[in-house]
Amino acid sequence: LNSTQAIGGPFGALAGGRVANARGRRSALLLDALLFLAGGSLFALAPSMAALVLARFVVGVASGLASVLVPVYLGELAPPVLRGTFGTCTQFAMVIGILAADCGAFVDVSWRFAFGATPALALLQLLCAPYLLESPKWLLDRDAGSAAARSALRRLYGFRDAEALEQEVIHIIGDGGGAAKRHVSVGALLADPSQRPLLLSCVALHVAQQLCGINAVFYYSTMFFEGVLADPALGSALVAGVNVVATYVAIVLMDRRGRRELLMWSAGGMGASTLVLTAALLGLVPTAASLAAVCAFVSFFEIGLGPIPWLIVAEMFDGPALDAAQSAACQVNWACNFLVGLGFPAINAALGCALGPACFLPFGAVLAAAFAFVRAALPETRGLTVKDIQAKLASKAVVVGLPRPGYAPVDGRGVV
């Protein structure tokens, strides 16, 4: 039942880019809310296990769609100086949901009421539709003279002076707005030597986010605390609470520190926590150290590998290329999520039953690789425009074997 949502996620992510590009960010988000409403209602009212599985799949599709739409939407609405803060809100919403779910374990209510939270939140989003603005960037992609885009900019940023408003419009168009109306495929991005390293960098971060072991910690967190806490479920709630606090810290830090710095601190801190956790499982340190190690692991995740993969795609791409890149990255993210959910028990069984001492070492290897990749290859994106970032990465030619680009086939313009 749990893995069904991870199966549905890639389907939603696959459709997300096309829907967002064709129908607009606002319409796509409202369609997604309808999917959550339908799937969540079936969840709460399911008469059989088959209906529960179907509901879980529909909610998975809706979740995959949201994983594409929300980062794109927030990235396009946020001013450059607040892109990191806005982008981290995606992760902040996720961890609040995790905390609410863990706290729900201590409330003695019917499972149908618990599942009813999904359609209730979807209905709330639909009721807020009048306050949901269309992305000015998407509107200007289609019409540089769009009155709707200018109206949205006034409501978002409070422009009173017509000249200042037009300067913002020129800035958006100059940063990629109004460049194209057509759909750009993932294949086109991979074939373009100026876009390929950007896409591979985004995908690599999403792979690292899932294969670093964070979901294994949450899926099996109660097992870590057996013998440490009287009620292991309390440990899960504690970790979820730490998760929320750490993500709030990330919101504060995101636009004050560089993305590279936070990612390296994240991967390095998680790697060290993995070693402590392994030592605790080996009996080399007190068992209570596993609780501290898990909390540290989660905290370091939330300052870097948690939020940054979601927001960095919108910093590296714009226009139709953004929709395709976000869709591809999210498909990979969901696929890795599914593999971890199914694969961690197999790794655990192969390396030693019941959380064998070596079961987290493969995740440590992933974190070491992520640290090395970020340090050697990832460009800094904080405070830079999409054009600046693309030119910066192109000048480094960081991905081995990729030619240094001299042109950009996606839009036909030269790369400085």
TrEMBL record:
InterPro entries for the chain? GLUT, MFS_dom, MFS_sugar_transport-like, MFS_trans_sf, Sugar/inositol_transpt, Sugar_transporter_CS
Membrane topology listed for this record? Multi-pass membrane protein
- Which GO molecular function, any one, fits this protein according to its record? hexose transmembrane transporter activity
Cell compartments where the protein resides: Membrane
Catalytic reactions on record: D-glucose(out) = D-glucose(in); D-xylose(out) = D-xylose(in); D-mannose(out) = D-mannose(in); D-glucosamine(out) = D-glucosamine(in)
Q: Does the keyword Transmembrane helix apply?
A: yes
A GO cellular component annotation here is:
membrane
This protein's source sits in the domain of life called: Eukaryota
Q: Does the keyword Manganese apply?
A: no
* UniProt-listed Gene3D superfamilies: MFS general substrate transporter like domains
Q: Which UniProt keywords apply?
A: Membrane, Transmembrane, Transmembrane helix, Transport
> Pfam families from the entry?
Sugar_tr
Major facilitator superfamily (MFS) profile domain mapped to chain residues: 1-382
Q: Which residue ranges traverse the bilayer?
A: 28-47, 53-74, 86-107, 113-133, 198-221, 233-254, 275-301, 349-374
State the family it belongs to: Belongs to the major facilitator superfamily. Sugar transporter (TC 2.A.1.1) family.
Record note on quaternary structure: Homodimer.
User: What is the protein name stated in its UniProt record?
Assistant: Hexose transporter 1
